[in-house]
Write a structure and sequence with these properties.
2 domains, two-stranded antiparallel ribbon, globular
């Protein structure tokens, strides 16, 4: 699925890259323009017209919302719509440019972990840019990047944040040893405290999704190197996948070393 809004040039680039993999089904979800913003209306119209540039044999489905839902409700509504129709799949946003190998990578791990509830998320972006201390094509993490990613309906149906559940988890100390550093634990407590006090604040869907994964002890799969570039300045590479193929780790366990490095980085 491709989530778009009002950036026709970026959307065109991403669509062209998707076209190189020639998916048999493509979902495009577009939020509505902000009311009273004529320039947004024009740009949204241009973006929606780009569906006509899909020039390979493909079952194309569109979800064009009339109302402006915003970056929080709009993304969640789009993903909900996607998983009403598909049991698993890839989710891209209009400013995330995938390498060709991103699609084969996601296809491989989506199939491999289709029925494994331990894994909830497949990242396209490595938050460390690169992790090559092991010979495998990916590692397991508690953290997840979005923009270019994949998941399953079975995982997404667990998405959501519940204040009472958070208070129970915190009161009973379930998160006390969950994070590798005090700094990271404090960061997530602040995040979830904010969700409890301002549940309707925009652009928090990724935090609610994080809470869902944490409370299920869900793992993310993180590629050895980023396979998706977050435009305009993100970096991605697929040479290691193309040359070596995808090497699966012989275990399903969180890489604490990589997660600790990430916790020190933010």
């Amino acid at each position: 699925m491709l989530i778009v809004y009002n950036r026709p040039e970026l959307t065109q680039r991403v669509l062209e890259r998707i076209g190189r993999s020639r998916p048999s089904r493509l979902y495009i979800a577009a939020d509505g323009p902000q009311e009273g913003n004529e320039s947004a209306v024009d740009l949204c119209t241009q973006v929606r017209a780009l569906k006509d540039t899909v020039n390979w044999p493909c079952e194309l489905k569109t979800w064009y919302h009339a109302e402006h839902l915003g970056p929080d409700r709009g993304v969640v509504a789009a993903i909900n719509w996607f998983f009403e129709n598909e049991p698993e799949g890839i989710i891209l946003e209009d400013d995330c440019l995938p390498e060709d190998s991103f699609f084969s990578f996601c296809d491989d791990v989506l199939k491999k972990f289709r029925d494994d509830n331990r894994v909830m998320h497949v990242c396209g972006i490595n938050p460390l840019d690169k992790w090559d201390r092991e010979p495998y094509g990916y590692y397991y993490s508690r953290h997840a990047t979005t923009g270019g990613w994949a998941t399953w309906r079975r995982a997404w149906k667990l998405n959501g944040f519940d204040s009472a559940r958070y208070e129970f988890v915190r009161r009973n100390g379930f998160f006390d040893e969950y994070f590798p550093t005090r700094k990271e634990r404090a960061k997530w407590f602040r995040t979830f405290d904010l969700l409890s006090t301002h549940p309707d604040q925009q652009a928090q869907w990724t935090d609610r999704w994080a809470f869902a994964r944490f409370t299920q002890s869900g793992l993310s799969i993180v590629p050895r190197e980023s396979l998706v570039a977050h435009l305009p300045n993100g970096k991605a590479s697929d040479k290691w996948l193309t040359d070596q193929g995808l090497q699966h780790p012989p275990y399903v366990m969180r890489n604490l070393e990589a997660d600790t490095a990430f916790s020190h980085a933010f």
